Amino acid sequence: MSETLRSDVLISGGGLVGQALALALSHHGLSVQIVDPADPVATIAPGFDGRASAIASATWQMFEVLGIAERLTGHGCPIRAIKVGDGAPDSGRGGELDFVTADGDPPLGTMIENRQLRLALAAGLADAPLVRLHMPATVTTRDIGVHGVTLTLADGTRLAAPLLIVAEGRRSPTRYAAGFSIASWSYHHHAMIGAVAHERPHGHVAHEIFYPSGPFALLPLVDDGEGRHRSAFVWTVAEKDGPGFAKLGDRGFVAELEKRAGGVLGAMELVAPRMTYPLGFHHSASIVAERIALVGDAAHGIHPIAGQGLNLGLRDVAALTEVLVEGARLGLDLGDAALLARYQRWRGLDNMMVSLATDGLTRLFGIPGRTAAAVRRTGLGAVQRLPILKRFFMDEARGEAGDLPKLLAGAEV
Amino acid sequence: MSAATINPNEAAHFGALAADWWDPHGSSAMLHKLNPVRLAYIRDQIDAHWHVDARERHPLAGRSALDVGCGAGLLAEPLARMGAQVTGVDAAPENIAAARGHAAGQGLAISYFAGELAALPPATFDLVTSMEVVEHVTDPAAFIGELAGRLGPGGLMILSTPNRTMLSKLLLVEAAERVGAVPRGTHDWDQFLKPEELTNLLESAGLEVIDRTGLSPSAAKGFKLGGSEALNYLVAARWPA
Ligand SMILES: Cc1cc2nc3c(=O)[nH]c(=O)nc-3n(C[C@H](O)[C@H](O)[C@H](O)COP(=O)(O)OP(=O)(O)OC[C@H]3O[C@@H](n4cnc5c(N)ncnc54)[C@H](O)[C@@H]3O)c2cc1C
To answer: Is residue B2 part of a domain?
Structure first.
């Protein structure tokens, strides 16, 4: 039998959330092993992940503490305003709900290309001696015992720790095997995502436009090396229309994009490969089990409408890091039920609220028809009239609701 | 007792008992909720007494610790993980067997002794702890004297015990035992010590009480420190300078 490699925790899944968690834990002196079947070189290759993520300012504070922000210098585009409308910006129905930051306020979020995030995390992990990557590696047996968890890899290596953190994304096999019950449904929509270069500067404005066929978002990115202005797009279409759009050539696709963008950004050109994702909602009521904790999309998957998916996962990272680091300083078994219960109490409600809120938003804007559009407009107008509500939505978008973990306030644990 | 002298039947019995001690949902559920809160107090006192950085993972590295009435090791194990050379003493051999089994499973080297504290080979310790024990002994003054006898120069002693108030009578004894949150028969209210009484006992043993805090239920967290002392409290003591 080959050797057993021990660490404070095991993380199954080295995606954005799993890697950020490894950095946060090791920053506070905990040792981590990550297992993931993906090839780390492939995941940072251009074209592997064409998405861009809106990082809330609380999450950005954590990036500052962990040294990730520094590695992202020059790659983050602050969002200074969000224009929400029920039709194209040039249709007279756009921009009914504007979130604008006051001078000196933190931005509403910072847009980062996922590839840059992956590069920054990979560089951070390469500098983190307490993190050991087993990538690509496949787990053949998983033993959740009374005293700890042991994973056996295909090459016979055994990894052991008191706690297994599952960061395997939406279709997490470990979550299924451990018997977590999941509420899930499909929105019967696909998101087409990518990035465009455009004629006119975006002025740090994000657009969320609710078309009857589904929401369309334009999110500002930093200019590229040649000084071209760029934005990411998330364009939602009904499941049945997905294949049609997929067949469309780049020129036809860009023409459709320009139409939806309503001309605010001028002529466009694709600068990242188009990708299509099916959209669904899932939520696990319980995010812990004996010696197991779920983080990121393994615990909750929501509609990208409000750009909250990754942020929710990174808030899991901040809370779980605080719980485990404090537990370690008290000499507790890191799989201790009292620690896991604290993580569940801390994150369960926030995850559920954000998940249900975005689901509600999707449903509100997903109903086709004229009356529904009128209702939607009234709804938006009412929100705009209520500064308190607006404040709440903005804080929620920034990720500042509830009892804030220290990392999200920019402090070490 | 050593592992070799335990017969298989006993081992099975002790195994079940250990499983129950360490089952966060079993009859020791309340202890498991209490443990992190108590540990937070102990950690604070350790840091203050020995001037350790609160972020240090092994604040007790190079120090010895004695836990009297250690049960199955709920406190002894965290002290060992904090870096101490830990000795655990408990009068009940089945607790000690459970503690040994669990520590072995956790890969922790802890010396466990079944029997009275007086029977422990002579030695003194940097840290002496005894949680929820003084209210069970027949002669508290003699017991505190024995604990003091085990505290080395420059050492730190931390005790916790329920208070003798009407509230504790009502809540702890009646309610908790009735709903089974604390195993029945664990507590005898008349023997509980008021904080001044415990302070007197410690001072009579030549010690100086340096801190005292209440431990009370909290809706959000289960238990919290710093609130009322009416139910349960913790004290820290040392040799006078
Ligand atoms: C179209 C779209 C747009 C989005 N836009 C935004 C946005 O603007 N802002 C935002 O905040 N969020 C957004 N999100 C959500 C965000 O991308 C996800 O929340 C985030 O990527 C989740 O990260 P994760 O690490 O939890 O999961 P993933 O990124 O899915 O990573 C999971 C990892 O686990 C590995 N894995 C899988 N199976 C196993 C196994 N059996 N064992 C070990 N490892 C395994 C995988 O190889 C992968 O590396 C968007 C999502 C979509 C679909």
So the answer is: no
